[in-house]
Request: fold
Amino acid sequence: MATARREQSAVFARAGNEKSLCIDQQRARRCDRSRGSRIGAHFVRVDEGNDRLGGIEVQETARVLVVEDEMLFAETLSGLLQDAGFEAAGPAGTIDSAMGVIETSTIDAAILDIRLYDELSYPVAYALRDRGIPFMFLTSYQTRDLPADLRRRPLVEKPFDPSMLVRRLRALLSPAEALTGD
Reply:
């Protein structure tokens, strides 16, 4: 359903010689503005064999999975991400719902709270790591509280500065960060 919606409402915005693929008309202006700052956006090269878009660079909005059990905070975080030019996936409040999103959706990164009601989100972290999807923790836990093999992952402690979170997420999605991940 989401794929059909994207195909039906795709809008191309033109600035100079660049083309941007925006998800819907309301986001077209934001996508166009984000081209300059590249907040939440990344470029992909469309296959040369594609007749419709052959060989052009298309800007996509990075899709970020939000795994948080406090729904009011999760919705606020999703809004923050959207305001920064990202597309929020979820939010997912349980391990099962997060795993469902990972298995059925395309996501570019994830932000995980560690404690989800009476469970810990480590299985989600391992699933993301196994799929090569970058993620960070947004939690009241500290790095020393994480399992040893997850301690090198970015962690932002609550309470946090929203602009710092956006900067850390942008860094997480940068090609240089992808090359240096564990």
